[in-house]
Amino acid sequence: MTTIQVRTEDQLKKQAQRVLSELGLDLSSAINMYLHQIVLTEGIPFPVRTANGFTPAQEKAILKEVAWAKKHGKRYSSASELHRNILGK
After folding, report:
1. Can you give the residue range of the structural domain that contains 18?
2. pTM reported for the whole predicted model
3. Do 85 and 74 form a contact (C-beta atoms < 8 A)?
């Protein structure tokens, strides 16, 4: 058996312990489960997401589209003009 030391914010640890306690787990058991899942899946056992809720690849693609649209996209002087263009009127 070995010991792992991890630095984390006090509030985050307390919140995690509260959730885990409701699940009948302590922090050490949960971390061991996490490590086992890393080994079983040969990677992080859940999708890593950005603050916006996307995977890094999805967010990169979205930002690329936004940059393209800013450079090449149509511009409208009013919402009415946009609506006319969309509706073909």
Report:
1. 1-46
2. 0.60
3. yes
Determine the Cα–Cα distance for residues 57 and 40; give it in Å rounded to an integer: 23
d(CA 83, CA 29): 57
**Shared-domain flag, residues 25 and 58:** no
How far is residue 53 from each of residues 12, 37, 50, measured CA to CA in Å? 20, 22, 5
Tell me how many domains the chain contains: 2
Model confidence pLDDT, tens digit, residues 9-59: 999 999 999 999 999 999 999 999 999 999 999 999 998 898 889 999 999
> 78, 85 in Cβ contact below 8 A?
no
27 close to 17: Cβ distance less than 8 angstroms:
yes
Tens digit of each residue's pLDDT (9 = 90 or more) over 25-39: 999 999 999 999 999
The CATH number that applies at residue 33 is 1.10.1220
